[in-house]
Amino acid sequence: MWDKKAVTAHFDGLAKDWDSAYDRDVIQEILDAADIRPGVSVLDVACGTGALFTDYLNRGVGSITGVDISGGMIAQAEKKFSQPNVHLIRADILACRFDHPFDRCMALDALPYFTDHARLMRRLAGFVKPGGRLTIGQTLRRPDQPELGCTLPTAEALASMLTPWFSPEIRQNNSQWYLVCALRSDAVAPVVPLTDRR
What we know:
The chain has helices spanning 4-14, 24-33, 53-58, 71-80, 117-125, 155-162; strands spanning 41-45, 63-68, 86-90, 102-108, 128-139, 166-173, 177-184. By secondary structure, it is an alpha/beta fold.
């Protein structure tokens, strides 16, 4: 089973060459589905080296907050992005507290490194504004992803976890990857506060 030290060490070792891991056409498809557009605030969970930040900035977002548990990943991101609207935090997202919610929350290829996905969904729900969007993309097979101690949820199971706070939609679901986009709905149960009530 993964623990924080193992996750951190794994990604510290990958940080230098991490940007090459993403297919640019797929990223644009994901950002379209996530409605990344001018003026929105974006929380990027497990942001890595900021591989998506240039795409966010090219779309004119208002701000980017990137969180990653790996100091190596954050260090690489800091070398590339010094814009005043880019904020980088080395932390476990489950322990984070913010003084404001975000318009958009992105979590791409983050699920394998969390053993309690329901808890993660509760936390992410608390970071999204009413009317905001949460987008979760997960590659099911990656060469840089070692054997993990947790089982990934299916797209359907993930969507079900989100229904107390969101109206989720499965936008892509095949043997290679899935994409779940969820609109924060005020018509459903109120979102948990930023302090996690486990």
